[in-house]
C-alpha cells in the first residue's frame, strides 16, 4: 500500500473547491448572455428548476461514486462494476472528456490572462480596438501567457488536495465574491443601470421554446461541472462522515447565485454604455462578450471615472473571471492527474509533468486553429461547415459527450452499483437524508427521467451537429 489517499481538510474547503470548479466562465459571462437572449426572468426560472431538479441529483450521484470508491473516475467505474469492460468505456470517457475540455478552457483562460495583463498596464484603448482580439489570439506572446497560466495551475496542483486545491480555493473564492459584489455595487451606480437590470430580469415567456429549454439545461449541466469526472474525483477526497447531499446543495446554490449576480454586473454595465441596447446588439458568445464587447465599455468608463478608475474596474473584472477560470481549470485537470496517480501509480509530480506537457501541445494546436495554421483551421468539415480543431473539441466533448457522461453515471448508479448501495453511501454522513422525500426524489429521478432527458439531448445534439 502506498500513502493514504489525500483528503480535503475541512467541509468548507471541499465546498469551496467544488464551488470553485462550478463557478467559471460559464457563470460569469455565459449565463448572463444566455439569460438575456432567451427571455430574461423566464430563462432564469427554467434554469433554476433544472439546477435543482436535474443537475443536483446528478452531482450527488457523482460525488457518492467518488467517495465510495475513493478512486479517480476510471478506477471508480472499474471497482464498482467489478471490472466490466463496458463500464471501463464510461470510465475512460470520464477522464478523456475533462482533458479535452481543459484544452479549450485553457486557451480561453490564456486570453483572459492576456487581457488582465493589458488592463493592469492601462492599455484599455488597445483592448477596445475591434482589430485587437484577432491580432492578439495569433500573437506569439500568447505562448508566454500560456506558460504563465500553466505554471499557476501546475503550482496549485503540485501542492496536492489540501495544500494546493483547497488552499487555492480558500484564497480565490472569497476574493472572487468580494470583487463580484464590489463591481456590482459600482455598476449599479452608473446612469441607466436600472434599465439593464430590468432587461435582465423581466420575464418574456414568448421566447421559451424547445431549443431554449435545451440550452438552459446544457448551460446548467456545464455550469455545475457535471459529466467531466470532476465531482467523482473531488468526491473521492472527502471524509466518510461528510454530508454529501447538503454539500452538493450548497455548491449548486453558490454556483447559481454567482451566475445570477454576474448578470447584475454585466447587464447594467452594457446599458449604462448604451441605453438603447437590444438583443441584436448583444454578442452571441461568451468569448465575443468578454473580449470584444466589454473592453469597449471599460474604455468608455474613462470619461466618467478617469483613466485610472477605468483601468482598475477593467483589471478587477478580468481578475474576477480569471480566478473563476483558474479554480475550474484546476479541478478539471486534477481528473486525469488523479487517474494517472491511481491507475499507474505515478507520483503527483510525474503525472502533472506528463499531462501538463500534453495539455500545452494540444492547446497550442487548438489556439493555432484561429488562423496561424490553416491546417488546423480547416481541420475537417461536417454538417456543411468547415471546422477548426477548437470547434471540434467544443462540438464533440462539450456539446455531445457531456450529456452522454451524465446519462451513463445515472444508469450506473441505480442499475449497476444499485440504489441500496448508493443510498447507504449517502446516509453515512447524512442521517437526515435517510428515508427523506429528497432521497426518494433523487433515487427516482436518477433512475428514470433524468437519463431519458439527457439521452434526448444527446440524440438531438448528434443530429444537429453532425448530420
Ligand atoms: N463550471 C465551469 C464553468 O461554468 O465554466 C465548467 C468547467 C469548464 C469547469 C471547464 C472546469 C473546466 F475546466
UniProtKB/TrEMBL annotation:
Topological type in the membrane: Multi-pass membrane protein
Stored InterPro entries: Na/ntran_symport, SNS_sf, YocR/YhdH-like
PROSITE patterns, A to Z: NA_NEUROTRAN_SYMP_3
Cell compartment(s), UniProt: Membrane
Keywords: Membrane, Transmembrane, Transmembrane helix, Transport
UniProt GO cellular component terms: membrane
Superkingdom of source: Bacteria
Regions that span the bilayer: 12-35, 41-61, 89-117, 137-157, 169-190, 210-238, 250-270, 290-309, 316-339, 351-376, 396-417, 444-467
Keyword Transmembrane helix: yes
Keyword RNA-binding carried by entry: no
Protein name per its UniProtKB record: Sodium-dependent transporter
Species for this entry: Paraglaciecola hydrolytica
